Amino acid sequence: MASTKSSPLTIPLFLTWMILFLQPMVSSGNHAFSIKEATVQDLQLAFEKNQLTSRQLVEFYMGEIHRLNVLLRAVIEVNPDALYQADEADRERKAKAPGSLSGLHGLPILLKDNIATKDKMNTTAGSLALLGSIVPRDAGVVSKLRKAGAIILGKVSLSEWAHFRDGSVPSGWCARSGQGKNPYNISKDPCGSSSGSAIAAAANLAAVTLGTETDGSILCPSNNNAIVGIKPTVGLTSRAGVVPITPRQDTVGPMCRTVADAVYVLDAIAGLDYNDKATIKASKYIPRGGYKQFLKIDGLKGKRLGLFKNEFFNVGEGSVYAKVFERHFSTLRRRGAVLVENVNASKYLEAYSTSIDYETLAMTAEFKLAINSYLKQLVVSKVRSLKDLIAFNNKFSKLEKTKEYGQQFFLDTEATNGIGQKEKEALLNLAKMSRDGFEKLMEENKLDALLSPFSVASSILGRGQYPGIIVPAGYDREGLPFGLCFGGLKGSEPTLIEIAYAFEQATKIRRPPSFKH
């Protein structure tokens, strides 16, 4: 069956001459508006003042993708219907349709390529094995984005199969687009698996982007690319239509240049989806009136923040990291936060000490069940099971140019046989770790959030299905960014947003990338 899907980076030919000469400024009458680094609020205000149209915005981002993607390898394909969607948004705004002057309406968003779209684009998790497959419906989060009036600009690269193919596969690499590059230092790791989302947001290839996380896949690339990443409580956002690793830990979240932008996206995608049962339980956490109300400049006042300085922030005395984090601790205190340091950290971290990797043990069995279920639901696909994927990789390794990369995770997973006794014990131990570790830490010390540098706490947050927000904190001597992460108990997004936004506004660390070689 011939595929009607677009090829990678398909851009309408009649636009080629235009995008080569697009500038980061658009003019309307006597007014000029700079798109680069513009926030969601900036863009909506420009729409309102007739300084910008959605078509101009899409054309600008297409131009930036055309100009930069040959270096960054962040975007796999551009939606051939993006300009049509932009024109529709412009018509709705002109007609003052409900909701057309706020939120994400008329704004282009790039999606990680494991998030399904029922359109002319592919959903492949970065693999040639799913090229030409057809999904039954939009992913739940995509349906919500379309309802909010967002423009689906395209799909971005990722560490193939969300970094669950083989340990030898580099972060940011997938067969469909090659090796993604960090725009702040091209030679450095962009981190995975939502690498393309982070690169694209950092390099201004879209207004906002969407990523997914199982263990570190939003927090780590956000850390390495100087953007804000929100890893929501599992179930707060739907995973229906997302190529899975494990429903127990998978979550979908915003990856944007500012906390406010990420919150606008979270407001659009959070909520009930009957195709994902986890959203039924988690929907109780969503506050009436949404999350924008927690963007408070004084959000740090009175917040109790746990600080494991020796355990998490042991980053080398006198190092650039140590100096920067000490300044941030002072800023947090000046803004009214209480840094709780007199905590017996070993009492809580000991809960995670084990010679057995329970997370991987459980995840390995869960992946086989989840991926087989996903593949069977596809309308069209040349692979229908994990066994088929393994066979595809063996047969087409030369075509994929991945002969040096294996698929050990796939092989280990295929060898499992459902959730047996050892998997059940692993799940019980994971739950016990979270109860005796993170939950006791937070409750016994009355903490609002746990501080951690980079994404070092991602496994604690991932295993326990807890939320986290990472915010740019500084740059090392080679120009590579690093962040400060705030993690909390399930449903604590309102508090984390207050903390993260107030910290961001007090520091304003982020700067555009240098594309340093």
From TrEMBL:
List, for all copies, the residue spans of the domain called Amidase: 57-456
Q: Which UniProt keywords apply?
A: Signal
Using the record, list the residue span of the signal peptide; answer none if the entry has no such feature. Answer: 1-28
The domain of life is Eukaryota
Q: Which InterPro entries match?
A: Amidase_dom, AS_sf
Gene3D superfamilies to which the protein is assigned, alphabetical: Amidase signature (AS) domain
Could you tell me which SUPFAM superfamilies the record lists for this protein?
Amidase signature (AS) enzymes
Query: One matching Pfam family, short form?
Result: Amidase
PANTHER family hit by this protein? AMIDASE (PTHR42678), AMIDASE DOMAIN-CONTAINING PROTEIN (PTHR42678:SF40)
Protein name listed in UniProt: Amidase domain-containing protein
Organism annotation: Gossypium raimondii (Peruvian cotton)
